[in-house]
Structures are given as C-alpha cells and as structure tokens.
Amino acid sequence: MFRRREPVPFAFVAEADRFRSNVAPPPRERVSRAQLAGRSLIGLTVVGGLAGALLFGVPALQQETAGVGTHQSEAAHGR
User: What are the residue boundaries of the structural domains of the chain, listed by start?
Assistant: First the structure.
C-alpha cells in the first residue's frame, strides 16, 4: 500500500538547501537626483490620476433619491 521512498542518488541534491555562497553581490548603485525626481513625478501622476478618478466617479455612483417614483414608462400612460 505505502511504498518506501528511495534515497536520493546524488548527495549534492540533498545538500543543496544547506549550501550558502561566501561571495557577496556587488553593492547597489546610488539613485541619481534625476532618477529620483522622475520616480517622484511618476508617483505623483499616478496618485493624482487615482484621486481624480475617485473625485469624478463617486458622484456618478450615488443614487438620486428625489426623483424616485415620479417617472413612469410610456406603457403606463396608455392604461
């Protein structure tokens, strides 16, 4: 019913999880002022677009309560 698992044929496959390299990656480059300004401008544009969409979208989603029940279809006028 239950089969025994076979041992791993290669020792390096079993020990791959424990291996850590002693070589450090190169240091990251510093961001220039132009890149920082560009990223900030893009971020502000995205946030402004979302705020504008919310500003114009919320009033369009609100239901009018004053005109409820005053409109009738043309089929109701013929009766």
Answer: 12-76
